[in-house]
Amino acid sequence: MSESWTIGSATAAEASSIATLLTSQLAEHDLPADPSRVAEAVAGILADERTGFLLVARSGAQLIGVAYVAMIWSLEHGGLSSWLEELYVLPAWRGRGVGADLLRAGMSEARSRGCVAMDLEVTEDHKRAARLYEREGFSELPRSRWLRRL
Question: 1 pLDDT exceeds 50?
């Protein structure tokens, strides 16, 4: 396996592969995800850049990672902000810097779109991800996230 990769914007032609990666991400965290709804969400993101953006890590023609950054208007941050909803790297590629490259590219793109901050969440059992975010300057907030399905 080659050790090189590139980071770039996702394309519509990659939508199916991106949906597969994101469905794997959710399953890895025991979050039930309907693959068709994930594919629908990916198509929606790619169709309207105001919702956010998808970045992919590629090794040759293979997608090895993906990041989805949602755009939000935040009162707390005083303007346009971003939410790193998903960052996923295939298990065989972890520990090599792919995730850090996706994160840095996501922050750079969010900044170039006028975002003043990036928020994210980490599950309590995902220490590896927490270490990455801490190394990149993120601070843990004293909050819990709540959800109600509509």
Answer: no
